[in-house]
Amino acid sequence: MRKEIESLLENNRAWADKVNRNDPDFFTRLSNQQNPDYLWIGCSDSRVPANQIINLPPGEVFVHRNVANLIHHNDLNALSVLQYAVDVLQVRHIMVVGHYGCGGIRAAIEGGDNGMVDNWLHSVRELYYQHRDELEPLSPDERVNRMCELNACSQVQRLSRTKIIQHAWQRGQQIWIHGWVYGLSDGRVKDLDCTIAGLEEAADLYRIQSATPVD
What we know:
By secondary structure, the chain is α/β, with parallel strands linked by helices.
């Protein structure tokens, strides 16, 4: 075990030395501040590295990851990341990024006892139930991949309903929320065309309404 960790530390030293040789000011610039335009909300899957997929260097993408790229309205971790990204970093684009073949999605829709993660994935099962007429005729792999798309778009909707996002839109901050899915087999990102860009595009029931003066 110690040798495995030592190899990681050696990898780090080699990487830092290489970066310094190629760009001596890189770490000085990076340590001064972060000013990203993008918040990436993705899956914890080790095969989906945010910066590499969109070919941006460190400091350009603020990242939050969890199993199946979910937004729960009682998840203080995700909401804290969202608030910091929106209110402090002033990101302009939020990308919810699923990936085809997601193990979390598969576990949710195939059932069985998966332990604690089943509680986390409960909303995925509800989403599957809502779309079961479309999904059940598909093959198992097609069903998982389609659910990966539906789930990413559903999380875009969930983000648009948070007070963090809606207050930002109310004060005139420009934020676009995008739904993407990443293909492990080809490295390509698919835009799911479910972008929400303002309060008027959020579902009526969930909108914060401007205060009305009382006569």
